[in-house]
């Protein structure tokens, strides 16, 4: 008598995918405050945390298969006594609040240790197959490595940086996937505690205006009137009011980064990039981040600036190896 065929699901059951979202609130708030308002301290803005958590849950559901186990919300409070806001968050479904200590200087203590402990426990007990880590501290690299050793996939989320990078490079390297939460995604849930008057806000120069060396008030003065336009001074005014980074400055930054890499990474590593002028995506991103750190502003809204940056970089590399820029030999 033959053995009856079993349904495919019974013959080869597959492990159910389940994930947790671990959020370093200190990192999330600080990075969002900087990119949205240029704010340095949490008291400068307010956060609609319950709605923010809901959006992050929805974002995770759209990116990861399986079911959400829960959200871990790592924050800090003086003497670990939860604030009113933290009590509200703790009452949300599928959210667990973990509190570190907030010292007199406003510094968080013990938060990273709690993240490492929870990530290790989740992985060791097989509670999740995937873990989302919204954080930026290099101290979490060891926890990521340990969880991966148990077979857990680590999905690192970061907040769009104002410029450069706001996450440790090694943490980015070790993650299985990396995603950046845009400022537009977070903006509806953050607001300034004391909004600036309209007039004051309008006279604060943007990074583009800083590059151009003009404040809004200065551009108003420079704007030609009808008689000035009629007298032929329009072209001079247009060139002065053009926004964006200065080409020679960006090219110099590109050369500076190339020189630094030659000294720190060695000529042999830089020679591997030849003949150019194309750069591997990872190296091109590193070049952009280094340049933005030097400038203190983002180059991402200016595609032409990235071209100038590469030109400066390759100019220095070609000089180093005595290569004719046109022929590549």
Strand and helix map with partners:
Blueprint: H1 8-11, E1 18-24, H2 25-37, E2 45-47, H3 49-63, E3 67-77, H4 84-90, E4 95-102, E5 108-109, H5 111-124, E6 130-134, H6 141-149, E7 153-159, H7 169-174, E8 177-181, H8 183-186, E9 190-192, H9 198-202, H10 207-212, H11 216-222, H12 226-230, H13 234-241, H14 247-265, H15 267-271, H16 281-295, H17 303-320
Parallel strand pairs: 1-3, 1-6, 3-4, 6-7, 7-8
Antiparallel strand pairs: 2-9, 4-5
Question: How would you explain this protein's 3D organization?
Answer:
- It is a single chain.
- By secondary structure, this protein is of the alpha/beta class.
- It folds into three domains: 14-192, 3-Layer(aba) Sandwich (Rossmann fold); 198-241, no CATH class; 247-320, no CATH class.
- It has 17 helices and nine strands.
- The protein has helices at residues 8-11, 25-37, 49-63, 84-90, 111-124, 141-149, 169-174, 183-186, 198-202, 207-212, 216-222, 226-230, 234-241, 247-265, 267-271, 281-295, 303-320; strands spanning 18-24, 45-47, 67-77, 95-102, 108-109, 130-134, 153-159, 177-181, 190-192.
- A seven-stranded mixed sheet has the order 5-4-3-1-6-7-8, with helices on both faces. It has a two-stranded antiparallel ribbon with strand order 2-9.
- Helix 5 (111-124) runs parallel beside helix 6 and helix 14 packs across helix 17.
- It is globular.
- The relative contact order is 0.10.
- Residues 1-14, 198-204 and 206-242 have low confidence and may be disordered.
- Residues 222-250 are annotated as: Disordered.
- Residues 225-241 have a biased composition (Low complexity).
- Pfam families: NYN.
- InterPro entries: NYN.
């Amino acid at each position: 008598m033959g053995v009856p065929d079993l349904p495919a699901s019974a013959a080869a059951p597959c492990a159910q995918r389940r994930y947790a979202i671990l959020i370093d609130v200190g990192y999330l708030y600080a990075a969002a405050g900087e990119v949205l308002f240029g704010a340095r301290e949490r008291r400068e803005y307010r956060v609609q945390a319950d709605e923010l958590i809901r959006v992050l849950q929805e974002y995770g559901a759209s990116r990861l298969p399986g079911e959400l186990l829960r959200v871990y919300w790592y924050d800090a409070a003086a003497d670990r006594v939860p604030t009113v806001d933290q009590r509200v968050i703790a009452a949300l479904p599928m959210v667990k609040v973990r509190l570190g200590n907030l010292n007199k200087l406003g510094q968080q203590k013990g938060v990273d240790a709690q993240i490492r402990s929870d990530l290790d426990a989740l992985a060791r007990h097989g509670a999740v197959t995937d873990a989302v880590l919204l954080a930026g501290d290099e101290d979490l690299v060891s926890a990521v490595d340990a969880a991966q050793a148990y077979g857990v996939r680590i999905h690192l989320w970061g907040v769009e940086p104002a410029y450069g990078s706001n996450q440790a490079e090694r943490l980015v390297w070790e993650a299985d996937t990396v995603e950046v939460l845009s400022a537009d995604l977070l903006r509806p849930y953050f607001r300034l505690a004391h909004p600036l008057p309209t007039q004051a806000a309008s006279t604060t120069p943007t990074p583009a205006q800083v590059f151009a060396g003009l404040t809004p008030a200065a551009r108003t003065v420079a704007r030609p009137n009808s008689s000035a336009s009629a007298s032929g001074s329009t072209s001079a005014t247009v060139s002065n009011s053009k926004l964006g980074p200065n080409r020679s400055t960006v090219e110099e930054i590109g050369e500076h980064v190339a020189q630094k890499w030659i000294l720190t990474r060695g000529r042999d590593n830089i020679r591997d990039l030849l003949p150019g002028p194309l750069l591997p995506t990872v190296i091109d991103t590193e070049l952009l981040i280094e340049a933005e750190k030097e400038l203190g502003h983002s180059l991402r809204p200016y595609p032409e600036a990235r071209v100038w940056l590469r030109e400066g970089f390759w100019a220095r590399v070609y000089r180093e190896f005595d290569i004719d820029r046109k022929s590549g030999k």
